[in-house]
Amino acid sequence: MVAEVSESPDDYPSSDTAVIYRWASGSWKEQGAVDHVGANLDMFGDDGWLAAVGVPGTADPAFVPSGTTGSVGARTMALTDVGGKWHTAMVTVPSAAP
């Protein structure tokens, strides 16, 4: 799950911070955060949510704008932990995306 917070309405969306959580042992556990996600990952401007998709190289899902999950092989900005730390990166949404 991703929770996004806008730190300043005057600097929206560049001030948005995304906090990533995973359900474990009966509660949500924080996995990481990404500061200044920018307009490409602005949940408030993209139907209000990000969708989880599998990405090779990570056990955790990446999170992409909900409008890209039905596009086979779409290349888009995502929140990902490839490399061990949550960050933004361009990914190709796998064809098996929900």
Report the radius of gyration as a whole number of Å: 13 Å
Biggest sheet, strands in spatial order? Answer: 1-2-3
Distance between the termini: 15 Å
Could you give the order of the helices and strands?
EEEEEEE
User: Based on CA inertia axes, which overall geometry fits?
Assistant: globular
Please give the share of residues in helix. under 10%
Number of domains: 1
Total helical segments: 0
Reported for the largest beta sheet, the result is: 3 strands, antiparallel
Share in β-strands: 35-45%
Average residue-wise pLDDT: 78
What structural class do the secondary elements suggest?
mainly beta
Number of strands: 7
Low-pLDDT runs of 5+ residues are: none
By oligomeric state, this entry counts as single chain
Summarize the structure in words:
This protein is an all-beta fold and 98 residues long. The chain has one domain (2-92). The protein contains no helices and seven strands. It has strands at residues 2-6, 16-24, 27-35, 50-53, 62-65, 75-80, 87-92. It has a three-stranded antiparallel beta sheet with strand order 1-2-3, with no helix packed on it. The protein has a two-stranded antiparallel sheet with strand order 4-5. A two-stranded antiparallel sheet has the order 6-7. Strand 4 and strand 5 (62-65) form a beta hairpin. 24% of the residues are buried.
In short:
With 98 residues, this protein is mainly β. The chain is 0% helix and 44% strand.
